[in-house]
Amino acid sequence: MGREGAMRRCARLLAMVTALVACSQRTPGGAPSGPDGDKIVLTGDQKADWAQIVAIENEAKALVKTDGCAAAGECRTAPVGSKACGGPRYYLVYCSRTTDSTALFRKLDAVAAGEREYNTRYKIVSTCEFRLPPQLALSGGSCQAH
User: Fold this and answer.
1) For 46-55, which contacts have Cβ atoms below 8 Å and span 24 or more sequence positions?
2) Nearest 5 degrees, angle CA 105-CA 106-CA 111?
3) What are the DSSP calls for the chain, one per residue?
4) I want to staple 114 with a disulfide (CB 3.0 to 4.6 A). Which of 4, 29, 40, 126 is the partner?
């Protein structure tokens, strides 16, 4: 094969690479790529984008169980969201014995990443106070912010 054959091979290789790259990229509004659909893909519609963030945040809240701990040391906090100035908007309190913390943090990581992108895209501003996790207490087997 001469130069013409080599050029055809290069053209085929370029076409294959282009197809692979195109297939690997998501389009706005496409199916989420996270294991449980936790990836937030902003669409350019500010209300719809915030609704995506809130929906996954609500899924995270549904995973939280505050009951079932035997000691206050089993109670935990999880940061929620990402304020424009940085840091979480607030913290969830949960019992580490009865909450699937892996699933919880997967969703909360998606919320924080989505909110950071949302804040940048829509030029959101926020107060810049730093929120600390609340002190925890156990009352009747239920974890609570103190």
Assistant:
1) 46/122, 49/114, 49/118, 49/121, 49/122, 50/118, 52/114, 53/81, 53/111, 53/114, 53/115, 53/118
2) 90
3) --HHHHHHHHHHHHHHHHHHHHHHSPPTTS---STTS------S-HHHHHHHHHHHHHHHHHH---B--SSGGGEEEEEE---TTSS-SEEEEEETTTS-HHHHHHHHHHHHHHHHHHHHHTT-----PPPPPPPEEEETTEEEE-
4) 40
Per residue in 84-132, pLDDT tens?
999 999 999 999 999 999 999 999 999 999 999 999 999 999 988 989 9
Distances (CA, A) of 23 to 4, 40, 98: 29, 19, 40
Count Cβ atoms within 10 A of the Cβ of residue 61 and give its class: 0-12 exposed, 13-18 middle, 19 or more buried.
middle
Structure tokens, 132: 């600390």
pLDDT of 28 over the 80 cut: no
What are the domain boundaries of the chain? 54-145
